[in-house]
Design a protein that fits this description.
three-stranded antiparallel sheet, about 375 residues, about 55% helix, mainly alpha
């Protein structure tokens, strides 16, 4: 009887993978999960991978009942209704403007653009404000709650699937109950240093002195506390920043921007006219449009702080309310980050973690 081996497995498939005599033709298998640096390139890759798959791959897998669909894909698809809802709100505020009387259309355009900017500023402020807490906590404690890693998902074999491994982008601390830690930092990456070199560094940031025995066991509960408190602070403060973004979009200077760049309509009388008008609009965005946008943003911030014209929306109250909102939001963010850092600081090593063996003494084992 001829022994079974890869060489005599009949084509075309072996465990659902197309077989080839040439190893170069076999699919490249990412065998294990891997930490990647938390930099702009990897963050961009993570966002692009999630966003594109949320619109294309994941819905098809879910609707067709694919056996490899999972909860991660379901959660990732939350980007879709968020994007559609934002676009619908912006369109709702501006879609009816062309059908109004010219005078009413002008006023509706001013308000509609400001409402659309409010939706945009809400999302941007809510997203980027988290960095105002995450980065100080990382610098103060050494714990990066947004450290990304690539997860290798080994899928079940199915017809037409020649790639048995699919890659997902995750954060190592995205689960508070089950964080990924030691298994993502294999010993060979520590080099000649202590196997717990990473945890030793975090412990030093938290105030522990010296090289500790079982430093990973000492610091892991502290990391869980840091992650929990950091997420709580970001959840609270990001809505303050989002509200501040909406208030910023409601200021009077944005009306000047609308008046300056609404002389050329987006939609023309014909296809050729429409393309020409859109081209003129896009041409005006760079660099003049960006410069004007930044200038208007600064003027709106001043208007929010000092108060706008009395005839403007919330003009009389925008000054005191704006100051209270700005200082309150900044203070809540700073105090929240400081609380996370200071509460994580320790002074003494717990007795349970101290070694009871004196290395200067000799011991006899009976």
């Amino acid at each position: 009887m001829q022994p079974i081996s890869a060489a005599n497995v009949p084509a075309p498939t072996m465990l659902g993978i197309e077989y080839s005599e040439n190893p170069k033709d076999l699919p490249k298998i990412h065998a294990h999960d891997e930490i990647v640096p938390n930099n702009l390139i990897n963050r961009s890759k993570m966002f692009t991978n999630r966003y594109i798959n949320a619109w294309t791959t994941y819905p098809i897998k879910g609707l067709t009942g694919n056996k490899n669909a999972n909860f991660y894909e379901f959660l990732t698809m939350g980007m879709v209704p968020y994007t559609i809802g934002s676009a619908m709100l912006i369109a709702l505020f501006n879609a009816a403007t062309p059908f109004f009387h010219p005078t009413a259309a002008k006023n509706a355009s001013r308000l509609g653009i400001k409402m659309g900017l409010g939706v945009l500023f809400y999302g941007l402020a809510k997203h980027f404000s988290k960095k105002l807490v995450d980065y100080p906590v990382k610098w103060g404690t050494g714990v990066d709650i947004n450290l990304p890693y690539i997860k290798a998902v080994h899928e079940l074999p199915e017809p037409g699937n020649n790639d048995p491994v699919r890659l997902e982008w995750h954060h190592s601390q995205e689960s508070i109950e089950f964080p990924r830690s030691s298994d993502l930092f294999p010993n060979y990456k520590s080099g000649p240093e202590h196997v717990n070199a990473r945890y030793d560094k975090i412990n030093r940031n938290l105030g522990y002195e010296g090289k500790l025995p079982d430093s990973d066991q000492l610091v892991k509960p502290g990391i869980r506390d840091i992650v929990t408190k950091t997420k709580t602070v970001t959840y609270l403060t990001q809505y303050l920043w989002a509200a501040l973004g909406v208030m910023l979009a409601a200021q009077e200077p944005w009306e000047k921007l609308v008046n300056t760049h609404t002389t050329t309509p987006w939609i023309g009388g014909s296809f050729r006219g429409t393309c020409s008008n859109i081209g003129k609009k896009i041409k005006g965005i760079f660099p003049e449009g960006i410069s004007l946008f930044v200038k208007t943003l600064g003027e709106s911030a001043k208007s929010l702080y000092n108060g706008g014209p009395s005839q403007a929306l919330f003009g009389k109250v925008s000054g005191p309310l704006g100051k209270a909102m700005i200082f309150g939001t900044v203070a809540a963010t700073a105090l929240g980050a400081a609380h996370v850092i200071m509460s994580a600081r320790k002074k003494d090593v717990p007795a349970s973690t101290k070694s009871k063996i004196d290395k200067n003494q000799e011991y006899m084992v009976n």
